[in-house]
Amino acid sequence: MQLDDRKKRTVRIPTEIWEALTKVRISGEEWQCLCLILRKTYGWHKSKDWISNSQFVNATGIKKQSVNRALKKLIAKNIVSKKAYESRQFYGLNEDLRRWKPSAKKLTKNVSNKASGSKPKSFSDVSNNAAHKSIITKASITKEKEFEKTFGKNPEEFIRRV
Q1: pLDDT tens figures, 7-42
Q2: What is the model's pTM?
Q3: Angle between helices 64-76 and 28-41 (to 10 degrees)
Q4: Taking Cα atoms as reference points, which of 12, 10, 20 lies closest to residue 94?
C-alpha cells in the first residue's frame, strides 16, 4: 500500500473530541470498543451506525460478555450513545462533550468518602486487625526460644548490660 492510498483511508475526528478523550479514564476494553465505534461512524461520515455484538467481538478480539460490559460503561459515562431500532443497536459518539461523565483517577481504599462520612483507616486500625496479627507457629515458637536463650527473657536488660 502506497502512502497516497493510506491518506485516502483515514478517519477524520475533530480535535475537540481527541482532547476530550485524552482527559477521560477508560479501560482498555472500553477503548477498543470506542475505537470501533469511531471507525464505523466517523470513518463513514455517520453520526451513528448499527454495530452488532459479533462485529465488536470479531474486530476487537474481546469476549462478548466483556464487550457488553465495556459498552455499558461507555454508555453510563455518556461517552457513547445507544439507540435501539427494531432488534438492532445503533451506536455513536456523544458529541456533547459537556455531558461526558469522566471517572475519577484511580481510587484507593485509603481515600475518604465525604458523602458517606467514612474515614481512611489509620495505622493502628490496621495493626489491630486480626488478619494482620502474627500467627503463632512451631517455627515462631522455636525462634522465640532461641532468642530467649541468647538474649534472655527481657531484651531491655540485655541492652543495658551491653
Answers
A1: 677 888 889 999 999 888 899 999 999 999 999 999
A2: 0.61
A3: 80
A4: 20
State in Å, rounded, how far the first CA of the chain is from the last one: 81
In sequence order, the 6+-apart residues with CB closer than 8 A to the CB of 57 are 63, 64, 67
Alpha helices in 42-111 (DSSP H): 53-60, 64-76
Show the domains of the chain with their CATH numbers: 9-99 (1.10.10.10), 134-161 (no CATH)
Distance CA 96, CA 26 (A): 18
> Are 82 and 75 spatial neighbours (Cβ–Cβ below 8 Å)?
yes
In this predicted structure, what is the pLDDT of residue 132? Answer: 44
**80-85 vs 88-93, strand pairing mode:** antiparallel
